[in-house]
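Lesson 9: reading folded outputs for more than one chain in a single document. The general rule is that every protein is listed as its sequence immediately followed by its structure tokens, and records are never interleaved. Here is the first one.
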Amino acid sequence: MFIDRARVYIKAGKGGDGMIAFHREKFVERGGPSGGDGGKGGSIYFTADSGLTTLIDFKYRKKIIANDGEKGHGKKMYGKYADDIYIKVPVGTVVIEEGTNRIIADFTKHGQTEMIAKGGRGGRGNAKVATSVNQVPRIAENGEPGEEFNAKIELKLLADV
């Protein structure tokens, strides 16, 4: 079966939230803030592959959703970054944002890799928010959302004579 057009929902991962934590240890005075930063959300990449000739994979996969980043931990530990998603498409594929008809990527060479949707940045924990004026903050930042949109994927064809 040959398919040259597809519609797909694309959503990159949200960044992890920062943590509010305080260092508490026996015999240590004034431990202070020790909340870690959240991890980065997963991004979505497309890679051109000359071995593919059709968009049949997108007939059965209507949603591409990346994982969210992990939230921060105590002891100034960062949250885990989410894994990025790499999807192979045929050479000659064009990715278009559905609402604005903006061309996001045009794949012309084998091995060409383009970021389609960027994952969100992780939020800062209270250890990073501390300043000389506010030495013990009780606030942390939330992670930023990743990009999400509906996309049209089209395959440009050149007939062999």
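And here is the second record, again sequence then tokens.
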Amino acid sequence: MIRVVITFVFALMISTSVWAGNLNAKSKNKPKDLDGVVLTNEENKVQKGNVALIDTTNNRLVEIDLSGKTVWTADLPKAFRNQRNLNGGSDIEWLEVSDTFLVAVPNTGFFEINRAGKVLTECKNKFISHDIDKLNDGSFVFVNGWDDKGEDEPIITKVSSECNVLWTKTKDFFQVEKSDLNNRFAKDKSSLHANSIRVLPNEDIMVSVRNYDQVIIIRGNEILKRFKNAPGVHDPSEVYIEENGTFFYYANRARPHQIIKRNFENPDDTPEVIWTMPRDSRNEWSPLRTVQKLDNGNWLITGSKNIGQITPSGDLVWEIHFPEFRHQRETKKKATYIFKATFVAP
């Protein structure tokens, strides 16, 4: 009897050891949570909600709460896992009406994915990078920030929900002048570095052109307005009616990087600085990109390693830092950096 009990206990120990070993093996393969550290949190001034971004190292989408805790993940479709393309300017947008995420991967295409990880739309297109928007009729518009010099490649493309190309616009349409070319970006491999597109409520189209320091408003087949003096412009916002006029905002990539306010009615008005990147944390806050207005008036902003909220008056009231992320210029293959993030309302 004693021998039987000892044999049973020994077998149970072996079984438990194998089970624990398998569990540990699985946990080793599971991507760890992002290691965000909250540096600033003025709770009474912060818009409540979550933030989603692309974890390029682990080929997944990640949603975190304002404490940095991971609350949701979804694997990227296999066709969108090329590390070089993912790190070349991928866009992520949260679509509130459907509670889905829209993701564009440079030189690859885009997809829309739901909370269950199901891909609802998947379109391949090599002329895509930096930004995509979904329209009310189910179609999509996106930009190509890396059009090759000397080639007549599309800068803007509109496609149907079935991925059929509806129309495109190439560099010649934008009628940019060589005198406006920013010398800092003259060596870009692209001829016209468009990095953002937005369809306004009246169906005008807003496009930002980084290497020519311009925000361009398009109506049909015409250039309606041209906002110059916007160095390295990124991510222009929607247009807002405020007490003293109509304005939009964007990230200015002069030195230091800033959030800028512009009078939408008068392209010649002097830009107003809303927030300036702290010089002692420029490696974390540059390049400044995401500029997303939140329900309480705050702005969601991102750098390579930081995400934050600033108030309309320019106070940084929430800031999270990712120490294991890299700056965009660095070449650590196994480190993520933030290109864009999107706010997820509660």
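What the second record shows: The radius of gyration is 23 Å.
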